[in-house]
Amino acid sequence: MEFTINRAAFIKAMNNVNRAISSRTSMTILKGIKLVLDETGLILTGSNTDISIEILIPANDDEAKLQIMEPGAIVLPATFFSNIVKRLPGETFKLTNASGLQTKITSENAEFDINGQDANNYPHLPEVEVRNDLTLSADTLNEVIGQTVIAVSKQLSQPILTGVHFILASGNLTAVATDRHRLAQRSVAFDDSDVNADIIVPGTSLTQLQAMLDEVENVDVRVAENQVIFQLGENTTFYSRLLEGNYPDASRLIPTEKRTTLTINARDLLQTIERAALLSHEGRSNVIQFAITSEKSLISSNSPEVGRVEEQIFAAETAGDDLTISFNPDYMREALRSFGDEQIQIGFKTALDPFTLVPTNNETNFIQLITPVRTY
Asked: NCBIfam families, per this entry (predicted)?
């Protein structure tokens, strides 16, 4: 195996493949990055069994300037190899694996010899039978992931809740995530009404995928029995396993009655919450209180160990019953960030019932739900 390549182009591909590589895996070979060189180009592969990423650097890529001298394959230790390539002095580098598993990397006056592993021992990527296939805008998919993945559970004791539930039916995609303390749901329409699927994608997979979406315009989504494949452009394929089980019916958690509503700019309220959280985080309970009346609305936090903060907020509109409710500021901050600079309506039923946050225009079919904290 022997080739030369532009270092910047290689690093770009390598960084994305490294998203699927974990140093904590029990399979030593999966700590490495697989390189396969043939007449079509250079294929980089990384996997942690849950996520697999494969990227082709084509032989005719003008930016990569790949020159193929000798086809071949090798698995190199991902972290060590990445650190070497990132610190090489030249614009290009040469990789040579003449015989055995020892690989030589050269660039200008720098030369490294590192030991690899046999590529034949690397697990094969899953061969799947695609049951549903649709194309989404990368911007839309990025937005849907960002607005829902914040609500997945971090508790491995509830594995089904560590993923986002995607329901594709009748030309509509609905994404739902909940950790039983909060919920995020977003719906978008797509063109193909014949696509029907009900899958749960791990939140960790979606977070890694989201970081790669800025580089493409559209994403081809292919659903198989226990895998989902995201094709990013012509040369990047992202595989993720699916979570098995029945996701809870999230629609039952969303209240239909609102006795108190408050309309406000999400970013303005976020800034107030962040100021109050400075104090709540220093206390033991990490709770913020929201008092809403027809005259004024206040955000406050009281910590006997630290002190007290109180700030009046100026809503565009307040309607309904007076209400005082307590909540976790971290949940509220993440929910508010997902709306950006939009005008939102917060709807309350009682001080003990979950409350909802929705855009006032609701053109995005988007809802966030937060369960209050009982303080008595």
From this structure: dnan
pLDDT category of residue 376 using cuts at 50, 70 and 90: low
**Which of 3.30.1490.100, 3.30.1330.60, 3.90.1150.10, 3.10.150.10 is the CATH number of 132-252?**
3.10.150.10
Judge whether 291 and 300 are in contact, CB under 8 Å: yes
The model's pTM is 0.93
Choose among 173, 310, 321: nearest CA to 259. Answer: 321
- Say which CATH topology domain 255-370 has: Proliferating Cell Nuclear Antigen (3.70.10)
Q: Is there a contact between 135 and 168 (Cβ–Cβ < 8 Å)?
A: no
Strand partners, 195: none
pLDDT digits (tens, 9 = 90+) for 315-365: 999 999 999 999 999 999 999 999 999 999 999 999 999 999 999 987 779
Residues 139, 81: Cα–Cα separation, whole Å: 32
Helical ranges in the chain per DSSP H? 7-17, 78-87, 138-148, 203-210, 266-280, 329-337
Question: Radius of gyration over alpha carbons of the chain, in Å?
Answer: 25
